Amino acid sequence: MAVAKKAAAKTTAAKAETKKAATAKTETKKAAAPRCTTTVNIELEGLSVTPAQVQNAVKKAVKQAGLTPSSLNIYINTVEKAAYYTVDGVAEESYKVDLTAL
Fold first, then answer.
1. For the purposes of burial, counting CB atoms within 10 Å of the CB of 85, is it exposed (0-12), middle (13-18) or buried (19 or more)?
2. Reported pTM
3. Measuring CA to CA, how many Å separate 75 from each of 2, 33, 87?
4. Helix (H, G, I), strand (E, B) or coil at 14
5. Which pLDDT tens digit goes with each residue over 3-56?
6. When comparing pLDDT for 44 and 97, which is higher?
7. What is the edge-to-edge ordering of all strands in the sheet holding 82-87?
């Protein structure tokens, strides 16, 4: 009978230790560092745009052209301050957005 009581006491102690460890892990998660926000800016002689602005401008141009692409690739030409794009792998002269207009 004494052996059974010792085993029960060990089990209870082990459960208590497990609860303490779980509580410590939860408290550690709560003390995590705040999230860091990141913004990417592309600066060209007197011009500053974000990739999101370029992407939105290209999507707007594509929509205005009545196109419904399954893939859209954007290429930024820093010399011309323009974004060129391909629609479903096809490039045309008119597939261009002037970045100075953003």
1. buried
2. 0.64
3. 79, 36, 12
4. helix
5. 555 555 566 656 666 666 666 565 666 667 889 999 999 998 889 999 999 999
6. 97
7. 72-77, 82-87, 96-98
User: Residue 81, Cβ neighbours under 10 Å: how many?
Assistant: 17
Q: What is the chain's length?
A: 102
> Taking phi first (over 0 means left), then psi (-120 to 50 degrees means alpha), and beta for anything else, what does residue 23 get?
alpha
Neighbours of 74 (CB within 10 A): 16
How far is 85 from 58, CA to CA, in rounded Å? 7
Separation between Cα atoms, residue 7 and residue 32, nearest integer Å: 38
Continuous segment of H or E residues that includes residue 64: helix 51-64
Residue type at 25 in one-letter notation: K
Angstrom distance (rounded) from CA 18 to CA 83: 58
- Distance from first CA to last CA of the chain, Å, rounded? 83
Max Cα–Cα distance, the chain, nearest Å:
91
Nearest-angstrom CA–CA distance, 95 and 58 = 9
